[in-house]
Structure formats: C-alpha cells, structure tokens
Specification:
This protein is mainly alpha-helical. The protein has two domains: about 40-185, no CATH class; about 190-380, no CATH class. The chain is built from 15 helices and two strands. It has helices at about 10-40, 40-55, 60-65, 75-110, 115-120, 130-140, 145-175, 180-185, 190-230, 235-245, 255-270, 275-300, 305-340, 345-355, 360-365; strands spanning about 70, 70-75. The protein has a two-stranded antiparallel sheet with strand order 1-2. The chain is globular, with a radius of gyration of 26 Å. About 25% of the residues are buried.
C-alpha cells in the first residue's frame, strides 16, 4: 500500500518560498546589471581602464615622491601631477600610433581586395576544384569596403575613449589623498578599513605585476615578429609587430590571431605556400616559447588563475564588452579572485577560480610585498 509523503510544515514552506523568491530576485538583478553593463559599456570600459592605469601608477607616484632635489623631497601633489602628465602623454602617443597603424592596415587591405580572395582560396585547393571555386565565390561576395568603413569608424572612437580615460584618471588622482579617510568613515571600523586596504593593495600589486610581465613579453614577441616580417620583406612589418604586441594582451586567443595574421599577410603578398608555411611555423614557435614557457616562468605563482577560468572570463567579458572586454578579462578576474579569497561565503568561488585550488589566505594578506615595481622598499616613508 502506497503512503502519501509527509506534508511540509508552514515554516518549511515559508523558507522554501523565501529561497525561491531570493533566487528569482538574484536572477532579475543579474539580468538588469548585465543590461546596464552592455548599454553603458563605453563609459564603463573607460572607467575600468582608468582604474587599472591609476593602480598601475601608484608605484610611480611613490617612486617620484621619494626622490630628492638637494635637501628637498618632491611633494606628493607634484608627484601626482607628474604621473598624470606622463599617463596623458603616453596614452595620446599610443593612440596616435595605433590609429596610424590601423589606417595603414586598412589602406593596404583595400589594395589587396583584388588578389586576396584568389590567394586565400588557393589554401583550399585540397578540397578540389569545385571546393576552391566555392570558397573563392564566397570570399568575393564579402563587401570588404563596408567592413573597412566600420573598422575606421570604430577606430575613431578610440580617441574619445582616450580623452575620457585621462579625465577619469585625473579625478582619481584628485581623490587619492582622501581615499583612506573616506574608507574609514564608510566602514566605521578602523580594523576593517585596514583589512579592506590590504585587500585593495593585494589587488593592485597582482594586477600591476601581471601588466608589467605581460607588457614585457608582448613587447619582446612583437619585436621578434617584426624582425621575422622584415626578414621576408613583408609590407606591413611594423603594423604586424605593433598589432602582435597589442593582441598578446588577450589571453590565448590573441597569440593565435596574431600568428594567423602574419601568415595570411605573407600568403597574400608572396603567394608562395612554402614560404607562408615557414613564416607560420616560425611565428607559432615564437608565440609558444614566449607565451607558454617564458611568460609562466616570470608570472610564477603571482596570479594563480585557472586556465579554464581565464577562458570563461574571456568569453563572458568578450560577449559583454567586445574586444576591450577581452583585454580587461584577466585584471577583472584577478580582482574577483582576491576579493572572493577574503570573503568567507565566496571562498568556494575563489577555489574554483584559482589554478591549484589554493587561493590567497589571510596569512598572506598580513604579509604584503616589501618591494614595489621599482624595487623600492614599501616600508619606507
């Protein structure tokens, strides 16, 4: 004889209903936040970039403030202004160089529109004559000029973003002096404010170290790819080198795209499959050695990020913010890892995000790095 299951008490029903309501509210809140992040992505991307640049220059400001001119030490305000000027000049120069190279690539792309489809279609000769012809017809149906115009219009927005980033960084510098006071008054607990300050310093140090190592490796890789392109007399050698430098900031995918790019340019220009294969192999070897051997050696255990987590972060932020989101995916993941490591309820998430299941502990938080990026002692006033 079958027995009816025991009925839940009113208290259990109320708890179950509250959990269901909380889950539904969380889903709605996540959807609203995601919608706002997509709609306001231009401002949010600029703000995120400004925060990263501001954190990156914290060591620069401290380094300048420690310098002496005779018996006088440089005031912190002058050090902040000097750092701000350096950031503005660097961003404007970088933007102008990138726009110039994008313009060169676009102009060269238009000049290649006639022979590029035939050269690319020849790569599919192994499919037979019909297969090669189908690829050729598909490529010829692509309106390259339309894509070029779209890329040019998007590139013009980089200048606006640069100006907005400079403004954000300037205001962050202006608020820097009162940050600790605001934090203490906001938390209303000096011990808790000190702990939050240590977490922020840990995030800044890890993001700075990642960007420093990534910039070094990307610069070396870009220079080697430039030398490779020059050795085979490719027309876009400088552009390819700079684009490789920039793309290497996108984890995993960037190096693949950069390798495919130089191989494609070589095949379209030289129209020699053997030479193209050699360039592809050498470029792939450069990317593998620098990205898979030297890069992890220099990073060491500084990031402790899960490779699968990086891919997920790359996919998510790429879907939300596009290509800029891909560049910001790792710094954002570093921030999430550190924050989740020190919030007990979120620590399981930190374990999933970490490479070896060993996120940052409280003991590590109480042992801040003794040296900044310039090798200077952080404990000196």
């Amino acid at each position: 004889m079958l027995h009816d299951p025991p009925k839940a008490s009113r208290k259990e029903q109320r708890i179950s209903a509250q959990r269901l309501q909380t889950g539904a509210l969380l889903i709605i809140a996540f959807a609203v936040v995601l919608f706002l992040m997509v709609q306001a992505r231009f401002v949010l991307i600029s703000l995120a970039t400004a925060i990263i640049l501001f954190s990156l220059t914290s060591d620069v400001i401290s380094f300048i403030a420690r310098q002496r001119i005779g018996p006088f030490r440089i005031p912190n305000a002058i050090a902040s202004i000097a750092a701000m000027v350096l950031i503005a000049i660097a961003l404007l120069i970088l933007t102008s160089v990138l726009l110039a190279q994008v313009n060169t690539v676009l102009v060269t792309t238009l000049s290649y529109t006639e022979r590029a489809p035939s050269a690319i279609a020849s790569l599919f000769a192994w499919l037979g004559e019909d297969g090669e012809l189908a690829v050729l017809n598909a490529l010829r149906s692509i309106d390259v000029s339309n894509y070029v115009r779209t890329a040019a219009s998007q590139a013009s927005g980089v200048t606006q973003a640069t100006v907005l980033v400079i403004l954000f960084v300037g205001f962050l510098f202006a608020e820097r002096v009162w940050f600790q006071t605001k934090l203490v008054n906001f938390v209303r607990d000096e011990a808790q404010a000190e702990r939050i300050g240590k977490i922020i310093q840990s995030i800044i140090h890890r993001v700075n170290y990642y960007l420093l190592v990534k910039t070094l490796i990307s610069a070396i890789t870009g220079a080697m790819i430039y030398v490779l392109a020059q050795a085979f007399q490719l027309e876009l050698a400088i552009s390819i080198g700079i684009i490789t430098f920039v793309l290497n900031f996108i984890p995993n995918i960037g190096s693949i795209v950069a390798t495919a790019l130089i191989a494609l340019v070589a095949h379209v220009q030289l129209e020699d499959p053997t030479t193209t294969l050699a360039i592809f192999f050498i470029a792939g070897l450069i990317q593998f050695v620098n990205g898979s051997i030297i890069d992890p050696m220099l990073m060491g255990r500084a990031l402790r990020l899960s490779s699968f987590g990086i891919i997920l972060s790359l996919a998510f932020w790429g879907a939300v913010w596009g290509i800029p989101g891909m560049f910001l995916s790792v710094p954002i993941m570093v921030m999430l890892l550190v924050v989740c490591s020190h919030v007990p309820s979120l620590r399981p998430m930190a374990i999933l995000l970490s490479r070896e299941g060993l996120p940052e502990s409280e003991k590590m938080l109480d042992q801040p790095p003794e040296l900044d990026l310039f090798g200077q002692d952080l404990r000196r006033g």
